[in-house]
Amino acid sequence: MSEETPDSLIPYDEIVQEALRAVVGRVLGEIVQSGSELPGNHHFYITFKTGAAGVSIPPQLSERFPDEMTIVLQNKFWDLEVREDGFSVGLSFNQIPAKLNVPFSAITAFVDPAVDFGLQFQATAPDLEPEAHDNAENDGSVDGDDDSPPSGDDGSNVVTVDFGRKK
Predict the structure, then answer these.
(1) Is it true that domain 12-125 has CATH number 2.30.30.220?
(2) Distance CA 34, CA 31 (A)
(3) pLDDT tens for residues 108-163?
């Protein structure tokens, strides 16, 4: 009997990643159905690969965040639209409005710090390490709250799925 686990002919890791990204779509879809009002203290940090296929952001943001950026959906966002394959939203960056289109496949993290909930996803390109980047600094809450997303080892409920493909 072999000590080595056989390669699966079923892409379990891809299926799980797709299902978890559907959670993000469902949450955002429920916000749209409620009139784009976030209930209670809920707010979302969404991190995505800026160079992924289907991502559309203004050129100045692409230059500033060539690999990955995090946006905050809290008080100042508009025109949230959720599609089967992704979402679009209006945000302001340094008082300049911008429209962002993000496919779910580009998302690498989704966090709701109000309830210590988070999901982390495998990068779409294998073994791709994100470059260091500044925070997106989109215009945050009116009341000045400066929550930062919890890290994976602070006791929050972050779910990380990494099946580690064999090479």
Answers:
(1) yes
(2) 5
(3) 999 999 999 999 988 654 434 445 556 666 665 555 455 544 444 444 445 555 55
Q: What amino acid occupies position 73? A: L
Within 10 A of 122 (CB to CB), how many other CB atoms are there? 19
- Give the predicted TM-score (pTM) of the model: 0.71
